[in-house]
């Protein structure tokens, strides 16, 4: 510490220049200054530093940071930005020596990248480049180009002037602090994404759609990521502080995303969100009730790191997505339908049947989620062989530990697709989530298990993300796996086995009878028939003893309550197709439904003549009523508008303790209410946007509505 301070400390009496922070500086810094130290007669004095952050000024253009609601200059790595320095007299390049100094954190060091001097002359350059753009009278406009690896965060600026008495440094001025973010527009930055539309979607879009439900009955949630809202950037940086992440790692996108995947959940590190899948959310916000990330991040940062209650997978993924987009890392939320989980790279999901082919609930682990949401973020992977850069899986939902913490990724999507799961981080886990087989076993009298059926297509049935720049779906299953049954797929599975994944290889005779359950569109309260479609492939008579169970399940597959159990006997004539219907009445399930209103039907059975086992599974999503959101008033910036939300109770009983939430990026901060149904708001910004509302009460969850609107300037 204090070579520098003591040099400066002799200075007494120099007007307007004070030797203050940085508190410590390294020797290297001192020597560098020593080398360029030479006497000037009338050394420069600094009157003003302007970081040109007003909307119409140069730095707001080109950096794609105009949408941030912030009092500070925000720029992206490797793209030049300009600052204006006003001296007490004209600057003389031959004699006057000064540097713009960037400082981040409490103990700046040149070698750690936390202290960066930038010089105005071509001859003398540090890791960041500086140049004089313009000189007029006493004002110098300086262009500064940061390095592509520089730390992402909030820097302080000082101007240091060389004088005969040492280095004079300007006083700290918080208004000149500057945020430096990742830059997906720059080929030099590891997060470079060479597609303007993808960047617009995955960095700049504040609105998203998150898919859920079932692969053959997909539902959508609108989400306000709100990465540009006031305070969100600080909250994202706070998350890294809270993780005690060394500043010198914060320029490395691989490390930043890995730390964030651990910090977004509260397990083992008091991270952002507490998971709760219990169905009882008395002491927090039910996961289905959130409509955006802003409230969550502001609560977390505002309380200096008290975890927010409660989240399930899409909430983790949505808040993670805000973190990524806010810092300038291209990010998107993806949904994997029928996601295997909890199995350490073992590619088997076991379902145990008893001797007669009836499901044995007690012995069957619940480890297939109806769907699971995670994030993809885009980056180069200089730590992996060529070809594994691009989209990477990161997952903040606490499922399994990785190197001792609940976190997952970044894992290269391309590596998962090719079975190259030896590369960091957590690729075997992601591989199993999309590639596991469902294995049905029959428990013999002596307790041994016999494999009776293998279903290789159930898990990882479809991977969806929002389309680029419009509200459609984009099926990206082919980025995770080769087509089912293709030669490439077989090679990939063999490759994964070389790296330790275990599979079931029993070869089973093709059963000559099949059963399927087609999907259904059911509204809450409806009676409906579940159809079992039997198909013969044999030219003989077949008789089957069939078990059908319908169980209300959480989206994690965890069963809640059984709503139907039937044991029809089915007789099939040779070559006959036959439908068997099972009636499910509204009153059977209404009081048993849990939040996402899924009923999981499993049918199993044994063919009398052959002893073969037949199985089928189907998740039926019961559809909740929707909210009708309407806005009135003239859609102009700063003018008052009204929003009304309409909801009709579909039940014969009253709903109590009903909570309503709504928000819209750029137009309305989140609102909570349990009584008022009309709200006023004044749009902050022009453009097309959405207003999203959710309704929640213990008896009815996951009720949403939204409306699109375009705000004029
Ligand atoms: C879930 O939330 C309920 C109610 O807020 C609470 O009683 C329960 O302990 C929570 N469960 C977990 C695992 O945190
Ligand atoms: C009556 C009937 O539908 N028979 C079918 C039995 O199965 C064979 C093989 O799948 C079909 O070709 C028949 O049409």
TrEMBL record:
Gene3D superfamilies membership: Immunoglobulins, Transglutaminase-like
GO terms assigned for molecular function: metal ion binding; protein-glutamine gamma-glutamyltransferase activity
Transglutaminase-like domain sequence ranges: 305-398
Alphabetic keyword roster: Acyltransferase, Calcium, Metal-binding, Transferase
Pfam families, alphabetized: Transglut_C, Transglut_core, Transglut_N
Any one biological process term the GO annotation gives: nervous system development
Reactions mediated catalytically: L-glutaminyl-[protein] + L-lysyl-[protein] = [protein]-L-lysyl-N(6)-5-L-glutamyl-[protein] + NH4(+)
Cofactor(s) for this UniProt protein: Ca(2+)
Documented EC number(s): 2.3.2.13
Binding residues for Ca(2+): 435, 437, 484, 489
UniProt cross-references to InterPro entries, sorted A to Z: Ig-like_fold, Ig_E-set, Papain-like_cys_pep_sf, Transglutaminase, Transglutaminase-like, Transglutaminase-like_sf, Transglutaminase_animal, Transglutaminase_C
Cofactor detail note: Binds 1 Ca(2+) ion per subunit.
Active-site residues annotated for this sequence: 313, 372, 395
Similarity-based family: Belongs to the transglutaminase superfamily. Transglutaminase family.
Name of the protein in question: protein-glutamine gamma-glutamyltransferase
Species, as recorded: Sinocyclocheilus anshuiensis
Lineage: Eukaryota, Metazoa, Chordata, Craniata, Vertebrata
């Amino acid at each position: 510490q204090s070579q520098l301070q003591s040099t400066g400390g002799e200075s007494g009496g120099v007007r307007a220049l004070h030797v203050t922070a940085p508190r410590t500086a390294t020797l290297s810094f001192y020597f560098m200054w020593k080398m360029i130290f030479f006497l000037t007669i009338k050394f420069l004095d600094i009157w003003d530093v302007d970081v040109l952050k007003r909307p119409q000024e140069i730095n707001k253009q080109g950096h794609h940071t105009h949408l941030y609601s912030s009092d500070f200059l925000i720029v992206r790595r490797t793209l030049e930005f300009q600052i204006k320095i006003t001296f007490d007299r004209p600057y003389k390049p031959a004699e006057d020596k000064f540097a713009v100094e960037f400082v981040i954190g409490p103990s700046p060091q040149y070698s750690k990248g936390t202290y960066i001097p930038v010089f105005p002359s071509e001859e003398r350059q540090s890791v960041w480049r500086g140049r004089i753009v313009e000189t007029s009278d006493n004002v110098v406009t300086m262009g500064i180009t940061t390095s592509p690896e520089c730390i992402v965060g909030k820097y302080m600026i000082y101007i240091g002037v060389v004088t005969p008495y040492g280095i004079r440094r300007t006083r700290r001025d918080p208004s000149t602090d500057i945020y430096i973010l990742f830059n997906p527009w720059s080929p030099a930055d590891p997060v470079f994404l060479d597609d303007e539309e993808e960047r617009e979607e995955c960095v700049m879009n504040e609105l998203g759609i998150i898919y859920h439900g079932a692969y053959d009955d997909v539902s959508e949630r609108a989400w306000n990521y709100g990465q540009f809202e006031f305070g969100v950037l600080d909250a994202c940086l706070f998350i890294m502080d809270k993780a005690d992440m060394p500043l010198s790692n914060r320029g490395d996108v691989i490390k930043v995303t890995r730390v964030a995947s651990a910090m977004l959940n509260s397990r083992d590190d008091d991270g952002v969100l507490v998971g709760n899948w219990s169905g009882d959310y008395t002491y927090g916000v039910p996961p289905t009730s959130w409509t955006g990330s802003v409230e969550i991040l502001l609560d977390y940062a505002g309380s200096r790191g008290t975890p927010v209650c409660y989240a399930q997978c899409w909430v983790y993924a949505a808040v993670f997505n805000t973190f990524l987009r806010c810092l300038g890392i291209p990010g998107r939320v993806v949904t994997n339908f029928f996601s295997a989980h909890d199995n350490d790279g073992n590619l088997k999901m076991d379902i145990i049947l008893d001797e007669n082919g009836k499901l044995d609930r007690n012995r069957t682990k619940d480890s297939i989620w109806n769907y699971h949401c995670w994030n993809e973020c885009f980056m180069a992977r200089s730590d992996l062989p060529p070809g594994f850069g691009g989209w990477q899986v990161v997952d903040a939902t606490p499922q399994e530990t990785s190197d001792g913490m609940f976190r997952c990724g970044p894992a290269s999507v391309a590596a998962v697709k090719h079975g190259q799961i030896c590369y960091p981080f957590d690729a075997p886990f992601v591989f199993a989530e999309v590639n596991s087989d469902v294995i049905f076993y029959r428990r013999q009298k002596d307790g041994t298990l016999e494999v009776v059926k293998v279903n290789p297509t159930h898990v990882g049935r479809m991977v969806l993300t929002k389309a680029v720049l419009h509200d459609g779906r984009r099926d990206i299953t082919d980025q995770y796996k080769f087509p089912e049954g293709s030669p490439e797929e077989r090679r990939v599975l063999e490759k994964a086995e070389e790296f330790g994944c275990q599979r079931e290889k029993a070869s089973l005779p093709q059963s000559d009878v099949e059963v399927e359950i087609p999907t259904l569109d059911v509204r809450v309260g409806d009676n409906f028939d579940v159809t079992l479609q039997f198909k013969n492939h044999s030219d003989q008579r077949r008789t089957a003893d069939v078990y059908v169970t319908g169980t209300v399940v959480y989206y994690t597959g965890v069963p809640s309550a059984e709503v139907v159990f039937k044991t029809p006997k089915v007789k099939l004539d040779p070559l006959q197709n036959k439908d068997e219907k099972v009636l499910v009445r509204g009153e059977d399930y209404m009081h048993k439904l849990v939040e996402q209103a899924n009923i999981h039907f499993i049918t199993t059975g044994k063919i009398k003549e052959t002893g073969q086992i037949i199985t089928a599974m189907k998740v039926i999503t019961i559809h909740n009523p929707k909210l009708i959101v309407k806005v009135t008033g003239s859609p102009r910036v700063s003018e008052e508008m009204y929003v009304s939300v309409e909801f009709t109770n579909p039940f014969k009983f009253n709903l109590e303790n009903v909570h309503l939430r709504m928000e819209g990026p750029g137009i309305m901060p989140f609102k909570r209410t349990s009584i008022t149904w009309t709200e006023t708001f004044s749009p902050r910004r022009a453009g097309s946007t959405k207003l999203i509302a959710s309704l929640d009460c213990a008896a009815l969850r996951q009720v949403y509505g939204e409306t699109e609107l375009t705000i004029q300037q």
